[in-house]
Each structure stands twice: as structure tokens, then as C-alpha cells.
Amino acid sequence: MSIHIEAEKGEIAETVLLPGDPLRAKWIADHFLENPKQYNNIRGMLGFTGTYNGKKVSVQGTGMGIPSTLIYCHELINEYGVKNLIRVGSAGSYMKKVKINDIVVAMAASSTSGINAARFPGANFAPTANFQLFTKAVNFAAREKINIHAGNILTSDAFYEDDAEDYKKWAKFGILCVEMETAGLYTVAAQYGVSALSLLTVSDSMVTGESLSSEEREKAFSEMIKIALNIL
Ligand SMILES: O=P(O)(O)O[C@H]1O[C@H](CO)[C@@H](O)[C@H]1O
Ligand SMILES: O=c1cc[nH]c(=O)[nH]1
Fold first, then answer.
1. N or C: which end of the chain has fewer CB within 10 A?
2. 91 close to ligand 2 (CB < 6 Angstrom)
3. Which atom of ligand 1 lies closest to the CA of 179?
């Protein structure tokens, strides 16, 4: 048991899917895992372990933003020996070609977070995806004819930006979409020598103003989950 996770040692798999929303963790466990067993309810941040095609896999909610996500990743890696961390999140599109329900595989994550600026004063750390997981995801999507975008994304500390036009500056530099965790995830994975990948489904568009409802957001992510579970 760690401070925020009440699982016994051995109850969590080496590969963990990480949605921000704990109810999405339950939905994934209920719909995709064989024999799912809940191992965490501290703070309602649900975690489950089951199998997928016979392979042990866990799914753990992280909450929203880098600080919350780092708590769960730190404990999963250091207290439970987790080796592969795969975020399955939602994101807001910054480009016209990145449409609602499209999947983005994050090669790298730019960020407005101060976490690495404080760690590496006067320098920039580049949080990047694990190459093997990234390649497997891209190849699986190609085989299954699932359309994906791959590239740089933005991990923001703010969901509600002051300036609704700010996204245009990031889009000019190739940023596909915005979310709130990946730069933290890629950094903590690098810090402890484990593998991480972020898969994102577009739930909102800054370009068109479209948006999925919270119910659709919770459940509309089947193709992304399929990719995550098939790169184990
Ligand atoms: O859907 P999740 O995984 O929570 O991800 C996105 O949704 C939340 C904001 O609504 C932030 O956590 C953002 O990164
Ligand atoms: O617009 C969005 C959608 C999901 N997540 C974000 O951080 N922003």
C-alpha cells in the first residue's frame, strides 16, 4: 500500500493504462478487461487489474493535471514496479485537420508547466514518448486502418486559457492538440527509466468550437483503448 493507492504488492500489472477520469478507468475495466478486480478507491481514484487476451494489465485514474498525475505515476513506478505507462486521455484540437474523435499519438509534449523549468534552470528538457511503444502504436493503427495523427502536443496547466486565440501560435509551430498531463508523464518515465506513451482522443476543437458531452467524453474512446491494449 502506498499513500494514494491501497493495492497489495503484486496486485498491479507491469503495464498500466492511465485515463485522467477515474470513471473512464472503470469503463475500460468493465468493457475491455477479463476478470477485472478493483484495487483502489482512495480519493475515488479508481484502479483495476484484469487481463486482456490473457495478459495482465491494470488501469488507473490519474486525476487532472501534472501534479495529480505525478503522484500516481511516482507510486506506480516506485512502489509497485510498473514498467509501461500508457495514458489514454482526451484532448482539444489546435488544427483544422485534427478533428473531433481523431486519435493523436504524442511523440513529444511541449508544456506551460514550470516543473522542468524549476528542475533544469536556464535549460529546456524535451519530454518524449518511448520509441518502442510509439512505433508499436503507429504500426498497430496502420494494420487496423485506424487513422491517427502523430507529433508534438501541448501539455497545459490551464484548461481555461485567458486568450482563446492563443492556440494559433502553438499550431503555427506544429502542435496538434492540448491536454494537461503528458509532459509530466514523459518526464517521470525518463526520470525512473521506464516506458511511457500518450494516446489522446480529440474531444474538443479550439478551431471549430465543437465539443463532446461529458458522457461521450467518458465513453467514446474505444479505438484508442484498442490501440493501448494491443501494444502490451
Ligand atoms: O480526459 P483526461 O484524460 O482527463 O484528459 C483531459 O481532460 C481533462 C480536462 O477536461 C484533463 O485531464 C485533460 O488532459
Ligand atoms: O480542450 C481540452 C480538451 C481536453 N483536455 C484539455 O486539456 N483541453
1. N
2. yes
3. 14
Q: Kindly state the DSSP code that residue 92 receives in the 8-state scheme.
A: E
- CA–CA gap between residue 207 and residue 165 (Å, rounded): 9
Instruction: Classify residue 122 as exposed, middle or buried by CB count within 10 Å of its CB (0-12, 13-18, 19+).
Output: exposed
Beta strands 103-111 and 148-155 are: parallel
pLDDT at 219: 63
CB 36 within 8 A of CB 50: yes
Q: Which CATH number fits domain 15-230: 3.40.50.1580, 3.30.2350.10, 3.40.50.150, 3.40.367.20?
A: 3.40.50.1580
Best residue among 93, 103, 159 to mutate for probing ligand 2, ranked by most atoms within 8 Å of CB: 159
pTM for this model (two decimals): 0.97
pLDDT in tens, 152-170: 999 999 999 999 999 999 9
Residue type, 173: F
CA–centroid distance, 204 to ligand 1, in Å, is 11
In sign, the C-alpha dihedral spanning 24, 78, 120, 196 is negative
- Which ligand is nearest the CA of 203, by number? 2
Q: Is 204 a known active-site residue? A: yes
